[in-house]
Amino acid sequence: MQILQIISSAQGAKSYSTQLSQGIIDKLLAAHPGSQVVVRNLAANPLPYLEEAHLQAYFTPAESRSAEQQAAVHHSDEAIAQVQGADVLVIGVPFYNFTVPASLKSWLDHLTRANLTFRYTPTGPEGLITGKKVYLAIASGGIYSAGPMQANDFAAPYLRWMLGFLGMTDVTVARAEGVKLPELQAQAVQKGIDSVTV
Ligand SMILES: Cc1cc2nc3c(=O)[nH]c(=O)nc-3n(C[C@H](O)[C@H](O)[C@H](O)COP(=O)(O)O)c2cc1C
């Protein structure tokens, strides 16, 4: 089994979302010995924000692209190939300002290509990245899975929708939450790991 780990925390080894991701990956490796893990660190190696050059390249047929347009589309082609090559994605999500980090949003922007990763049909949009299992490992300072702040979680609903739009509909959400709350911090990661059955 091929596992793609996406890191988007800027906090290195201290990152709760990365620790939670690692716990999920350890479970996957125990259940599927011999699996391979590819790590993509978006915080250390961010993709550029979409600019005019990217968009022009996307909408130019591959055989007609200039050298600059081929270079512009490279990030996207490479990110898509990496996802298509995986059976399972484990996406680490630090909860920043009520949603996902910009680096993760940028990765999704580069994955989203008409007629390559989604298409419009007479019955509506169809995602073309299918057959994947996705685990979201979300770390947040507060509590968003229930209670008064649940309505302000613009990370999990956004990711579920966006990944589903691309065809990745089998999504499990695991949370290390309340990491800024002294009474919850110590157990937050383990609780998230324990919530996942692989
Ligand atoms: C820039 C920034 C924004 C944050 N915004 C929120 C927030 O809106 N809500 C919240 O509960 N925690 C927030 N936090 C706390 C993080 O969610 C928490 O530190 C989490 O552990 C980050 O994930 P990481 O440990 O993988 O980096 C924020 C932290 C940072 C650095």
From TrEMBL:
Its cofactor is FMN. Its EC number is 1.6.5.-, 1.7.1.17. The keyword Flavoprotein applies. Pfam families: Flavodoxin_2. Homodimer. Belongs to the azoreductase type 1 family. Also exhibits azoreductase activity. Catalyzes the reductive cleavage of the azo bond in aromatic azo compounds to the corresponding amines. Quinone reductase that provides resistance to thiol-specific stress caused by electrophilic quinones. This is FMN dependent NADH:quinone oxidoreductase. The lineage of its organism: Bacteria, Pseudomonadati, Bacteroidota, Cytophagia, Cytophagales.
